[in-house]
Design the sequence.
């Protein structure tokens, strides 16, 4: 019997077709069907099935020789392929009509800039056809110029927008947006200015992609975009191995290709859940959806220059995330200050990403629902909403933390959680030279002087348990809040002991003498 890794491209295409013929089938059932149909030795994993379904277009574009192969033919020049695809998407966003000859000519220019030399493809019609199929590009038509839309136009069109939203239940309306984050930024105005100006050099800025639905019942996994594929803090592991949805390019920007990948992944999730949803998007340069084959996502683009008024993520959701992230950061800075560390804001990227993940997970459904309602796109809630007090409590914690830190020119809480520069870096117009840089360096590992791992050595199991025991001893069990903390710390103790016991058992097993 064959393993799932020996599936041919033809068999993978049949899996895609079986899914298309049975749209309500779950991926686990699809995996069982594939095992029986192709006589596999084991059931393919959910990840394998998901990757196969995501590549349906590629399998459908293959000839008979490629279909019988067990491996998809690799792109000969991935850097050229990537930079050219980004250029095509940028032209689409600007409504530039492209002919096949124009695409081929631009490919020749990029090939010269990439110094492919003798490795330069012939750029034949066959090459162009495969390039278009690989990226889902179709023959382009010329579109009329779209006029700018102002706030008055939004007010005039608000009834139409609301009518569109009424076709969906609250749980099926989503909004997505990006934001930058200077994850080491100090709450000191002088220091922060130097850090922001030097962020391109020390690469301590990340781009985050957030999406959630109207009632807050579903927060999608956040996407993180960084400068390097495997920063030093990752210890040679990938972002996925560390539990993150993670992509990289030289400038840590959201590009059109990354956006299309994100949207197709989310569309696949909705297919699996048998849901039809509406996605509200702004007109950012990377948000190109034309010719993208989506089955379960319908995209509604807000008019230009209106998102600060009507986009839910801009109405407080991203701010709620940053409040929680800065709370983690300042608490850590206070601890480092008490330990007399030299740079109390210096934290490695992996820890910052863990804080960010925890901050996003901590945002309540009530907070998200409240931010959607603030846009005016939905009916206002009649009952009293207590979410504002939750956010105010966090701001008060941030004020207290700033007061405890050794700062010469302290920022206000608003300046700390809403620095203008963080909004400017998520999307910028990308020049052709930038596209070359984004493509050529996105797969390189990071080697930077600014990335410093935590100086604290890893704690032993005994040390961890002793610290927890000290914390538990401090608690007053008659205090209801301390009872909750006692339970949480006790669970952590149990978890550590369980892991240690399993590891000891494994060590004894492998150390047996036969």
Sequence:
């Amino acid at each position: 019997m064959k393993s799932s890794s020996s599936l041919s491209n033809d068999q993978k295409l049949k899996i895609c077709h079986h899914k298309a013929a049975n749209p309500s089938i779950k991926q686990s059932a699809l995996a069982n069907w594939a095992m029986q149909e192709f006589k596999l030795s084991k059931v393919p994993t959910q990840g394998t099935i998901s990757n196969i379904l995501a590549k349906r277009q590629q399998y459908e574009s293959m000839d008979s020789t490629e279909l019988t192969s067990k491996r998809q033919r690799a792109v000969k020049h991935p850097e050229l392929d990537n930079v050219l695809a980004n250029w095509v998407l940028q032209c689409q966003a600007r409504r530039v009509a492209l002919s096949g000859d124009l695409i081929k000519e631009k490919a020749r220019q990029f090939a010269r800039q990439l110094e492919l030399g003798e490795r330069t493809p012939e750029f034949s019609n066959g090459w162009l056809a495969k390039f278009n199929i690989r990226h889902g590009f179709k023959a382009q038509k010329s579109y009329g110029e779209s006029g700018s839309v102002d706030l008055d136009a939004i007010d005039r069109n608000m009834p139409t927008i609301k009518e569109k939203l009424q076709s969906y239940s609250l749980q099926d309306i989503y909004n997505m947006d990006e934001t930058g984050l200077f994850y080491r930024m100090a709450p000191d105005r002088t220091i922060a200015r130097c850090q922001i100006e030097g962020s391109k050099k020390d690469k301590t800025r990340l781009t985050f992609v957030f999406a959630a639905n109207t009632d807050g019942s579903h927060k999608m996994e956040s996407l993180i975009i960084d400068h390097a594929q495997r920063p030093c803090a990752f210890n040679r592991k990938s972002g996925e191995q560390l539990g993150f949805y993670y992509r990289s390019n030289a400038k840590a920007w959201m590009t059109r290709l990354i956006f299309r990948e994100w949207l197709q992944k989310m569309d696949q999730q909705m297919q699996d859940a048998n849901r039809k949803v509406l996605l509200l998007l702004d007109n950012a340069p990377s948000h190109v959806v034309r010719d993208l084959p989506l089955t379960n996502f319908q995209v509604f683009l807000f008019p230009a220059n209106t998102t600060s008024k009507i986009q839910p993520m801009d109405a407080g959701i991203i701010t709620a995330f940053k409040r929680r992230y800065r709370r983690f950061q300042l608490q850590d800075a206070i601890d480092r200050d008490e330990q007399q560390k030299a740079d109390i804001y210096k934290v490695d990227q992996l820890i910052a990403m863990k804080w960010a993940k925890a901050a996003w997970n901590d945002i309540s459904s009530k907070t998200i629902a409240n931010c959607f309602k603030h846009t005016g796109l939905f009916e206002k809630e009649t009952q009293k909403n207590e979410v504002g007090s939750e956010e105010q409590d966090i701001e008060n914690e941030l004020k207290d933390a700033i007061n405890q830190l050794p700062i010469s020119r302290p920022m206000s809480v608003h300046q700390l959680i809403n620095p203008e520069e963080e909004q400017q870096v998520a999307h910028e117009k990308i020049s052709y030279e930038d596209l070359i840089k984004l493509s050529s360096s996105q797969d390189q590992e990071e080697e930077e002087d600014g990335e410093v791992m935590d100086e604290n050595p890893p704690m032993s199991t005994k040390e961890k348990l002793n610290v927890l025991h000290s914390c538990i001893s401090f608690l007053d069990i008659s205090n209801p809040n301390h009872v909750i903390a006692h339970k949480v710390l006790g669970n952590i103790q149990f978890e550590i002991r369980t892991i240690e016991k399993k590891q000891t058992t494994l060590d004894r097993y492998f150390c047996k003498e036969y």
Q: What stands out?
A: The longest helix spans residues 480-510. Residues 461 and 497 are 8 Å apart (CA to CA). The radius of gyration is 26 Å. Strands lie at 173-182, 205-213, 223-226, 245-248, 277-281, 297-301.
